Amino acid sequence: MTPKLESTITGSCQSFESIREVLAKANEEKSGDELAGIAADSAAERVAAKDVLSQLSLATLRENPVIPYEDDEVTRVIQDVVDETVYKEICDWTVADLREFLVDERTNEEDIDRIRPGLTSEMIAAVTKLMSNIDLIQATAKMTITARCNNTIGTEGTLSFRLQPNDPTDDVDNIRYSICEGLSYGVGDAVIGINPVEDNHEQTKRLLEVTKEFIEEWNIPTQNCVLSHLTTQIEAVRNGAPADLLFQSLAGTEAGNESFGIDIDLLDDAYEFGKEHCTASGPNFMYFETGQGSELSSDSHADVDQVTLEARCYGLAKRYDPFIVNTVVGFIGPEYLYDGKQVIRAGLEDVFMGQLTGISMGIDACYTNHIQADQNDIESLAVLLTAAGSNYFISVPMGDDTMLNYQSNSYHDAAALWDIFDVRPAPEFESWLEDMGIARDGHLTSKAGDPTVFLGEHEDGRKQESTNS
Amino acid sequence: MTDIDPHTDPEDETALDRIASASPSRLGLGRSGTRPRTASVLSFRADHAQARDAVLTHVSEETIENAGLLKVTSLVSDQDEYLARPDRGRQISEETAEQIRDACTHAPDVQIIVCDGLSSTAVEANIADLLPMLTDGFEERGFTVGTLLFVEFGRVDIMDAIGEELEADIVVNLIGERPGLNTAKSLSAYLVYGPERGKPTATKSVISNIHPDGLPAIEAGAQIVDLVATIHDQQGSGIELT
User: Fold this and answer.
1) Could you tell me if A109 and A158 lie in one domain?
2) Would you say which domain of life the source belongs to (chain A) (predicted)?
């Protein structure tokens, strides 16, 4: 039974029709919820919704998924995996109780690990709506989620980076140059991952081969990935392409996934395929990307707010034990996240929700040129999320991705963040940087920043065979 | 303190120069400590400034007048609303509908509209060359061309509403693309056959990347005219084309 959904916290009585409406109106201000017509009409209504939400029990949220169990396979995945024993221990908690548990200094990582299997994505989204930015950072900082592919990501005291060497024409030489540049700044331990211009299996295979060849020639403890459609990658791998990671974009609704051309059967099959055929040595070989607003952009949001839908993406991602999940936070445009303030908030929410779900979470702190944000905003977000313990960030040369036409963190930002927070790259990768003479004791050496250290006599980034024996 | 300047002290100076000049990405720029060098930062900021200005400034009245365009507006009333409410940028008011029905040629073969979209700079940079190419090209092929319109705060799909009101066979929407750091001058041409409100995006054909360093206006004009002829022959656009 649904409790009475009303609050008098701001003086007058505000009431709500459904749990879904309470969740939407309790969100911090987001242009996407306004565009969807589901946001709070006023600041007073927003706080009233938060008040109502704070008093709901976790059982109420479990029993009222934002899309019914029988209508949506993402709901079914999230509900079916709940550990009933753990759930019974916490189902009487209110959302306020969950917030206070997470921020309590006596609550440690093991305590969070213990309750995690009893949570649903709706509960995780709900508590997020009651948490301030410091709440989110502090709670995220308590959680360590590691994953293992060819190296290990997410261990305490580390901060990794995806090296994103995109090129507007998929030019192989330019891609290699960008890889050389990134490695010379010490980035690339999360993945060397390319967004291809052309989504076909021949091109995907070619780029997987280029990256794998480079990784093997220089013996780099990292993994490669080409971010074409999952079915394209599988076709490429069937034709012999070496892929450490398999990539796919996810949505938080069945209809949203349909618009991405996937469903759970397809993901299940891909996962089984990857187990068999990925070149990764570790058990985690899936890479997912998400981002608040993607369901609304494909008109598959079912009147659910974008934070709750994002949490549901993570619930789905968890099924596949991913190496990395990435929220592409400022890419989608100002109609979903209006400005730097909304992007920063969404970034903190997403990394927190991902880690609370129990997945290896990182972020593309980014912006397009039509959003009210700039490089300062995403540098700030990177600092906040390094404090929170994000597993990794995306990085591109000088922050400028000339293929996707947007800006993200610069290769330079990695060493700056390591310095400020006294953290290090993934351990295997750090040893490799030391062997290469690029870094020493967690700092760049004088050799760093020179991409030509990888060029040798071959000018295209390939080692000479004689030096490779 | 500058740890290294690979422009003066790289392991392979020739290679570094080649990397920096070959790639459109910002490579081989060196660093100052962990941070980029000042000149690199300023150059990045200059490009971002141009991109922002392209989004936030308006197409000048002079450009609109010189091109002989009749100016109308979407339901959007200012730049903030334009960015936050794409749905309103796709619609016109009843007054605007009446205005264009009164002022414009009825049922033309081809209706051309120009939208500021996300880059006024793109409109300013391309329209003067592109429009005469199109009107001449269409007339040479025997198509009637409707009254030329400029739509302030217009999105791609506003072509459906305008085309439906004017009962045009085909609408060509010339619209400013979201600027990148490399150029703010890029324009796209969207084409639709049998425009009506709600017509799916997939039924629109598009020619993009129209700017002096991409597809120059003169080449784009020829391509658009050819594509309109194909659309006319096949009575369909986008995924409807074979």
Assistant:
1) no
2) Archaea
DSSP letter string over A183-219? HHTT--SSEEEE--SS-SHHHHHHHHHHHHHHHHHTT
Total domains, chain A: 2
Q: Is residue B47 within 8 Å of residue B181, measured between CB atoms?
A: yes
Q: Are A393 and A162 in contact (CB under 8 A)?
A: yes
Give chain A's residues under pLDDT 70: 1, 456-469
Residue ranges of the binding site of B for adenosylcob(III)alamin: 156, 177
Whether A217 is in a domain gets the answer yes
Using a pLDDT cut of 70, give the percent of chain B over it: 97
User: Does residue A462 form part of some domain?
Assistant: no
pLDDT at residue A156 in the model: 96
pLDDT at B11: 86
Asked if A66 and A18 touch (Cβ cutoff 8 Å), the reply is no
- Domain count of the fold of chain B: 1
CB-neighbour burial class of residue A465 (10 A; exposed 0-12, middle 13-18, buried 19+): exposed
Residue-level pLDDT at A460? 53
Domain harbouring B151, CATH code: 3.40.50.11240
Q: How many CB atoms lie within 10 A of CB B13?
A: 13
Do residue B178 and residue A35 have CB atoms under 8 angstroms apart?
A: no
Q: Please enumerate, by residue number, every residue of A annotated as part of a binding site for substrate.
A: 162-164, 195, 289, 364
Residue B211 burial (C-beta neighbours within 10 Å; 0-12, 13-18, 19+): buried
* Mean predicted lDDT score pLDDT of chain B: 94
pLDDT digit string (tens) for B186-227? 999 999 999 999 998 889 999 999 999 889 999 999 999 999
- A370 to B118: CB separation less than 8 angstroms, yes or no: yes
Whether residue B28 is contained in a domain is answered as: no
A286 CB burial (10 A radius; 0-12, 13-18, 19+):
buried
Domain containing residue A38: CATH number: 1.10.220.70
Residue A86's domain spans which residues? 6-136
Q: Cα distance from A366 to chain B (closest Cα, Å)?
A: 13
Q: Stretch B26-41: mean pLDDT, rounded?
A: 96
Of A335, A338, A399, the CB nearest to B86: A335
- How confident is the model over B165-194, as a mean pLDDT? 95
